[in-house]
Write a structure and sequence with these properties.
With about 140 residues, the chain is mainly α. It has seven helices and no strands. The protein has a single domain, classed as UbiA prenyltransferase (Tetracycline Repressor, domain 2), CATH 1.10.357. Helix content is about 75%, strand content about 0%.
Length: about 140
Amino acid sequence: MIRDAPTPGLPVLLDRLASIFKDIKVEHTVFALPFAFMGAVMASEGFPSASKTVLILMAMVAARSAAMAFNRLVDAKTDAQNPRTSSRALPSGAVKKRDVALFVLGAVALFLFGAWMLNPLSFRLAPLALVVILGYSFT
């Protein structure tokens, strides 16, 4: 009987997640948030409700995180060859491609959930937004 590899414990998973967050520069998302909120203020002709603000924040962080992590997947081979980027989580082996791909899927799901909760138009436009933010990695 073949045994499966042991499932990594919570500390290992948290370390991998921390490595992914370090590489996608979550702190840079803070810079983009004012633009998202300005759009929300203009669309609602005033300040959105607290619940809408939380959903916008969640969707924005999830979308940007998905885009940046996907970019790390696409650029992994190039990053490994570049001395400036070879220490990133994927090229250095701190995380596996599977880990980053699962992170991307989770972030996309969170983005879609946030868009669905915001309003029907946001949800219908969400796939187009995903094409743009994920497709950017190939430009």
